[in-house]
Write a structure and sequence with these properties.
Largest sheet: 4 strands, antiparallel
Number of helices: 5
Oligomer: single chain
Strand content: over 45%
Shape: globular
Structural class: mainly beta
Mean pLDDT: 83
Low-confidence stretches: 1-46
Number of strands: 28
Strand order of the largest sheet: 1-28-27-26
Amino acid sequence: MLVIRRLGLTALAAGCALAPCSCASAAGASRSSSAAAPPAAVRAAAQTGGWRVAARIAVPGRPAYLQSVAAAGAGEVWSAGGSASPGRKAFRPLVERWSGRRWRQVAVPGLLVRKFRAGAGGRLAVSMVGASSAGNVWVFNQLTGAFLRWDGRHWSEGSVPHQHGEELALTSALVLGKADVWAFGATVDAKGGARPFAAHFGGRGWHAASLPAVSHAVSLVVSAASAVSPADIWATIGTGGQLQFPASSDGGGLLHWNGRSWQKVALPAALADEGDPASVAAVSDHEVWVGGGVADGKPGGLTGLSARWDGRAWHSARLPEPASQARCVLSGIVPAGRAGLRALQVCFTDGGPGLHSQLWDLSSGRWSGPAEPPLTGQEPLLLSMTQAGPRGTIWAVGTAGKAAIVVSHGPG
C-alpha cells in the first residue's frame, strides 16, 4: 500500500512533528566536545559547508514552509509551499520568486487558491513547482493534480487528468517549454495500491504515458525526473522519499524516455532490490546520477547512496553513517564538477520526531559532511534543492521554526 503522509501544515512549519530529531541531537553532542576541537572559525566553515541563508520568509500569524524549488536560469528561480492558520482551517499557497537580487512573494488570486486546494478536504494543498522561464511557471497540488500556471502576467488553473475512481498523487514535474510539460507520480486505487504515473502536456492537452514495470513491488511511484533534452529524460521509480511519500526498502528502478517511449534501465541491485531510488540528475547519456537509500543492516533502516552511470557501468558511493532504523535517502542531488555531487538527505523516523535533513558533498568517490546552514535557534528541515545552471547557485528550501527558509551555495 502506498503511504501518503497528509501531515498538518501547522506542525510542519512549526517543526513540532518533524524537526529536529534525535539524529540531529547526536550530531550536536559530538560537536560539543572541546578537548581536541579545531578553532571556531575552521569548525564553523566545516559545519556550514559553504551554505548560507538566503532568505527567511515569515507569514504573520501563520507557520510557513517551502516544499519545492525549480530554476529556469541563473536569475530565475521559483519556490512553492504554503502557510496555514492555527488549526489548519485556512491554507494559502506560498509562491516565491528569485529574479537575481532578492526573493519576493508572488500573489495568487483567492478564487484560484480555492480551486487549487479543492479535492483535499477543501483545506490542504501541497505545492510542487516547475519553470522554464519567467513566463512559464507551473505550481501543482501534489495531493490532487490541480495546477496553477503563470504566463508572466496572469495565473490560470487546471488539473492533470487521470482515470475515474482513482486518486492522483504527484511527486515531480518537468517544465521544458510552454508546450512541453511532464507530471509524474502515481495513481492510487481504493485499496491503496499505487501504479507509477506520467502524463505529458503538449500545448493542447494532457496525455498519459505508458510506463514499463520495473519491480514486483505493488505500490511504487515515479519519485523524480531529470531531462537532458525533451527527447532524453530519466525518471526514478521508488516509494517517493518525500514529505508526503516516506521512504521504504521496497526497491525500484530507472526509466529512460527517448522521445518515443519509456524504457527500463538496469540499476545497481542494492537500489533496485531492497533500496529506494528517490532522485535523479541527468547531465548526458554518459553521466546520469541516481540518489536514494539502501539497506543498512538494521530492520527497515536505509542509508543514503549515490550511483553514477558513466555510459558503461555504475559507480556507487554510500554515505559514511552508522546503521540505524531511520530510513534515509538522498532526496535531492546536483552534479558538482568532475564526478562530484552535492546532495540533500532526508531521514524518516517512525515513533519519533519524524524527519530531519542533512547536506553532503561527494568528491573523488568520498563523502564529506554533513553540513548545515548557519541558523540560530530552530534547526532547519530542508525539503528540495536545485541548481540555477550548470555552474550556478544551488538553492535548497524548507522550514525552520515558523518561517520558510531558502539557503544557497555558490555564486549569487
